[in-house]
Structure formats: C-alpha cells, structure tokens
Amino acid sequence: VLAAVATVALADVIYIYTGTINAQPYTTTPLVFSTGPNAGPSNTAAEPFINFTGSNTGFTATIALTNSSAAYFYEAGELTVNTGGTLYVTGVSTSGSGMISGMTIYIASTSSPNSPVCTFQVLSGGSTTVPTTSCTLSTGTYYVNIYVTPITPVTSTESETVTVNFGYNVVSNTVVLPP
C-alpha cells in the first residue's frame, strides 16, 4: 500500500502547447566589422604588426607583441553601425601560452577617435573578465582600438588567442546574456 501512495505522489502532469517560429533573412546586418586605416591587409606598412579583418559576423585581429610595457593598436578596425543599439560583451575565453596580461577594446567614433564611447577590459592580470559595461551606438562608423599589456619577456615560442563574444541589442538598452 505504501508503494502505491509513493507512485501517486511522484506523478507529473504535462500539458503540451505548440509555438511556431518563422525565420526570415534580415537584409541589413546591424553591425559590420572591417579593416581600419592603421592595420593590414590594406595598410601594408602596418601589416607586420596588426592585421585586422572583419565581416558582418565579427572580426579577427592578429597582433605582434614585443617586450614593451604595452602595445596600442589604434584605429585597427572599423565598425559600421547600420542599426542603432547597445553593444556589450557576453563572454571571454583564452587559449595558448598566456602571454597577455591585460587587454582592453575601445570603440570610438571616427569623428572623435580619441574619445571612446565603449571601453571593454577583457583581460586583467592574465585572467579573463566579462565587463559589466555596455554602450549605446548610433548609426555611423566607429574605430576599433585594442590596448594590450604583454607578460614579459615575450619569447618566439609563445602565442595566445583571446576570443571575445559581443552582444548587440537593437531593441532596448538592456544587456541580455545568451543561455
């Protein structure tokens, strides 16, 4: 008798509902990354030190670090904002030998390149950090600047990859992290 009571107490009732989601292409990508004026491959003088390529899905930057106290890759990339919204960082990860102590990504309007509208510190003391800051971007063109502090001495056998995931909310100023 006790077993029957336990079975009834553990029963669940599930109601099933149907939701339909229709996907269609959005022809204007809200954000487009591209090479800035101070980076390769378009600026061949800068290419040995910074190569920045971008698309409507993100960017890849390859940087050269030395035994300097820091490196500032100024106007390395461009960000074209086709739809205004709120930009923020959703995640940061690293792989490799750990040659970077600090990294900050700045987004600045091309009309005021020395006054960033976004500041995202993604590495501090060699550890990843997800910034809690966000910034509102209006339509227009912005520069992507990258400030890096290496762990010295830098040797030829070291390399590190830092992956930064961005979120961009085109509806409100709310930071919404993906699951």
Question: What's the short story on this structure?
Answer:
The chain is 4% helix and 47% strand.
Write structural notes for this entry:
There is one protein chain. The protein is mainly β. It is built from one helix and eleven strands, in the order αβββββββββββ. The protein has one helix spanning 2-9, and strands at 31-35, 50-54, 59-63, 71-81, 85-96, 100-109, 116-124, 127-128, 134-137, 140-150, 160-169. The chain has a six-stranded antiparallel β-sheet with strand order 1-4-10-6-7-8, with no helix packed on it. The longest helix is centred in the N-terminal third of the chain and has 8 residues, at 2-9. The radius of gyration is 22 Å and the shape is globular. Mean pLDDT is 92; it is low at 4-8.
Q: In terms of per-residue confidence, which ranges show pLDDT below 50 for 5 or more consecutive residues?
A: 4-8
In spatial order, strands of the major sheet run 1-4-10-6-7-8
Mean pLDDT: 92
The number of E-state strands comes to: 11
- Shape type: globular
Could you describe the largest sheet, including whether it forms a barrel?
A: 6 strands, antiparallel
* Estimated helix fraction: under 10%
Order of helices and strands: HEEEEEEEEEEE
Q: Which radius of gyration do the C-alpha atoms yield?
A: 22 Å
Structural class: mainly beta
Measure the end-to-end span.
44 Å
User: What percentage of amino acids are in beta strands?
Assistant: over 45%
Task: Give the helix tally.
Answer: 1
